[in-house]
Amino acid sequence: MHLLSIRDLVVKFRTRDGTIHAVNGVSLDLDQGETLGLVGESGCGKSVTNLALMRLLPQPAGRIEGGHIVFEGQDLLELDESAMRDLRGKDVAMIFQDPMTSLNPVLRIEEQMVETIRAHRKVSMKDARARAGELLGMVGIPQPEKRLRDYPHQFSGGMRQRVMIAMALALEPKLLIADEPTTALDVTIQAQVLELLSRLAAERDTAVILITHDLGVVAGMTKRINVMYAGFVVEAASTADLFARPRHPYTIGLLHSMPRLDAEPGEPLIPIEGAPPDLRAAPVGCPFAPRCAWALERCWMENPTLAPIDEIGEIVTTGASVTHRVACWNLPTADEAISARPERPDFVAAPPPSAVESAR
Amino acid sequence: MTEQQAMIGSAATAAATPPPARALLEVTDLRMWFPLTSGILIDRHVGDIKAVDGVTLSINKGETLGLVGESGCGKSTVGRTLLRLYKPTGGSIVLDGQPITDIGGAQLRAIRRRMQMIFQDPYASLNPRMTAAGIVSEPMEIHDYLSKSERRERVRYLLKTVGLNPDYGERYPHEFSGGQRQRIGVARALALHPDLIVADEPISALDVSIQAQIINLLERLQGEFGLTYLFIAHDLSVVRHISDRIAVMYLGRLVETASSHELYDRPLHPYSVALLSAVPIPDPKVEERRRRIILTGDVPSPANPPSGCHFHTRCWLRQRLGNPERCAVEAPVLRELETGHHVACHFAEEVEGSPEQKLDLAGSAPVPPAASVPATPPSAPQQP
Q1: How far apart are the C-alpha atoms of B203 and B237, rounded to whole Å?
Q2: Span B150-173, mean pLDDT?
Q3: Sign of dihedral through CA atoms B222, B225, B228, B231?
Q4: Would the N or C end of chain A have less CB density within 10 A of its end CB?
Q5: Which one of A188, A239, A272 has the shortest CB-CB distance to B284?
Q6: Cβ–Cβ contacts within 10 Å for residue B148, how many?
Q7: How many helices (H) and strands (E) does chain B have?
Q8: CA separation for the pair A287, A43 (Å, rounded)
Q9: Measured CA distances, B39 to A32, B301, B302 (Å)
């Protein structure tokens, strides 16, 4: 049994401007102690998937309209609010991008940490305070006993994120969700925080979902990656496999559109044309078709499902031997993955069906 | 972006020689201090934030100078002071032979035509109540450039140049995506035929897949219009990609300037080395193997910077050398170790050849450019 199993999760936001199709059938598995990267651009549904998991979707607009989220054998969507509150923090903890907005500015760090600990554990004030000091020391904050008396604004950005990590790990959760934990930090501080996060998670055998738009961060931090686009998982593979053999046109595009420190000087960037889709429209066909150089006529009509590249044997959805799966009707070849463009003679991406209609 | 340009750039930084005629912008010992005041009725001057504290650099015509550093290091303040959006506390700025440090009024306005800015946040830097055409046309109206009908024509031309449909001119900013908005910002910057464009983190607010579009656009426009860029960013991979030369800043001072490939191949300042080692690389094999210098502590406050070398409190090299007193006492000056390669570190020679200096990315197979592969694709991963 997996620690976490999400099946066909659908999340929509009902707003005055119409329905936002944020997550359109996401499935993923996670085992104890595993680190999974969720990669995608803003609006791809990576954060919403995890907010749904925590049942923290903004209310009343955000709704889970389908699927199951099974954590340790229990469907979280069937739990009542008090059971859910018990689970948050204790079994599943979350770290957000901006530590300033996730800490209470008018409470000392000590009060916030003690409150978290005592909400879930029957311990004395004194013990909770001692534990809080111990945790601050663990995340590398100098003079932890003294710093407990400080307010959040007295910490720098990197230190605040350390405090968040200390609070998230206070109750030894089985799953830690880190949502862009270092995006607001400078590179040198990012390196500190990532190193801390991966060391602590490994020591405690904590499963981690790392949400980020930065392929460089997931390359060093995760064992497995799911690439998301417009509310769908479009490619899932082990980290090594994904970087060595990217197969989805979107993944290939992402890898080619970022300048790399280790690239040859003067190497041109190959951008992904167009812009991310408007999630107000219900998805028809492959969500990436409008920007895809490999699009076929079929891509505009039918949305491909996440299917294994080599259909031999059982499909493994988690762990080290995870099956490389891609949602694409017209898989780029290995050569095309390197050049980031179709290399087939006379191949032209299929135009949208409406354009064909009007041309006739 | 050619070798030749990079070399011209190197020659220009040789501080001792008189500035060659090609330098578009010469900045000498630029200081920009912001006063710290306290008091209820009367503000008492209690100190200064030395956002920029003695920066000397030059940018040649047609060149891109990348300015990198962490947040709070003063890189944006340098950009704004160059454009004379602030009145510098000290030092001099010379644009194309003309000193602009102290000018004001009509003179300043005339010079501003030649220098434009592209901002980070395309949501905040466009007036939501103006149409795209209005935004692009506004600089021309302010500077009374061209007749009304010519302006309209130029707006259409500019929108087309930056890759927007000229018919979208009547739309408002909220009707565009982030990348399109940034294109409007670029069109506005081009309106008055500037020589110098200061781009302050022009892509960091954009989605990853859009960033490359804007980088490629800026590179194309530079070729088409002979633009000179000061490209300010915190992302070393981006800066390396677009710049001919790079200046690394730490707490208000330059710590290293070099050509882009030289800085990457042979960084000589301990801070540059640490910065390069901290950049995550999208390749798990490299990430697993490379050594990362984890700097301890945070960037100190520019209101109260450390004595001597500003970096000495976090410096890995100083720790290795047994914390020499000199770093804490004497501020290092930029000295030229190699032609065109300036470093402000007393012990830069110790960096040379150290294991830390090597980024150790060898063996990683960066994806080769599409243009160079069609005939012989390099050893492709085997797919059954």
Answers
A1: 12
A2: 95
A3: negative
A4: C
A5: A239
A6: 10
A7: 14, 12
A8: 13
A9: 57, 21, 21
| pLDDT score recorded for residue B364 | 46
Distance from CA of residue B76 to its chain's centroid? 8
Helices and strands (H, E) in chain A, number of each type = 14, 12
Q: Which pLDDT belongs to residue A358? A: 61
Contact B242, B215 (CB under 8 A): yes
With CA atoms as reference, report the closest residue to A178 among A156, A152, A196.
A196
User: What does the block give as tokens for B12?
Assistant: 């220009």
- At residue B205's C-alpha, the angle toward residues A54 and B196, to 5°, is 170
Give the 3-state secondary structure of residue B199: strand
Closest CA to A245 of A356, A303, A331, A159: A331
Question: Order of strands, edge to edge, in the sheet holding B228-233?
Answer: B115-118, B196-200, B228-233, B64-68, B245-250, B253-259, B341-343, B335-338
Residue with tokens 């980088």: B215
Q: What is the pLDDT of residue A360?
A: 54
Å between B141 CA and nearest CA of chain A: 32
Q: What is the model's pLDDT at position B290?
A: 82
Question: How high is the ipTM of this complex?
Answer: 0.85
Convert the pLDDT of each residue in A14-41 to its tens digit.
988 889 999 999 999 999 999 999 999 8
Omega prior to A60 cis, within 30 of 0: yes
Residue A218, CA distances (Å) to A2, A214, A223, A260, B101 in order = 22, 7, 9, 14, 46
Distance CA B212, CA B54 (A): 34
Residue of chain B nearest A254, judged by CA positions: B209
First to last CA, chain A: 55
User: Which residue is listed with tokens 């299929």?
Assistant: A350
Tokens of A125: 């004030």
What share of chain A has pLDDT > 90, as a percent? 66
Backbone phi, psi, residue A338, to 5°: -80, -40
| Helix or strand run (H / E) with residue B59 | strand B44-60
Q: What is the pLDDT of residue B256?
A: 97
Dihedrals φ, ψ of A93, to 5°?
A: -120, 160
Chain mean pLDDT for chain A:
91
- Spatial separation of the C-alpha atoms in residues A295 and A292, rounded to whole Å: 5
pLDDT digits (tens, 9 = 90+) for B224-240: 999 999 999 998 999 99
- Cross-strand partners of A19: A14
* A18: three-class secondary structure by DSSP: strand
Cβ atoms of A22 and A231 closer than 8 Å: yes
Q: Tokens 């470093």 label which residue?
A: B343
Question: What tokens appear for B376 in the block?
Answer: 């012989």
pLDDT confidence band for B113 (50 / 70 / 90) = very high
pLDDT in tens, B198-257: 999 999 888 888 999 999 999 999 999 999 999 999 989 999 999 999 999 999 999 999
A81: distance to nearest CA of chain B, Å? 35
Q: What is the mean pLDDT of residues B110-137?
A: 93
Selected residue of B183, B215, B231, B283 to mutate for chain A interface (largest A Cβ count, 10 A): B283
Percent of chain B past pLDDT 70, that is, above it, reads: 88
pLDDT at A355: 66
Using the predicted structure, report yes or no on whether residue B335 has a pLDDT greater than 60.
yes
Query: What does the pLDDT look like over A255-306, one tens digit per residue?
Result: 999 888 888 877 889 999 888 888 888 889 999 999 999 999 999 999 999 9
Residues of chain A in contact with residue B281, where contact means CB-CB under 8 angstroms, are 216, 219-220, 260-262
Name chain A contacts of B250, Cβ cutoff 8 Å. Answer: none
**pLDDT band (50, 70, 90) for residue B292:** confident
Distances (CA, A) of B78 to A25, B11, B74, B119: 48, 22, 6, 14
CA distance B138 to chain A (A): 27
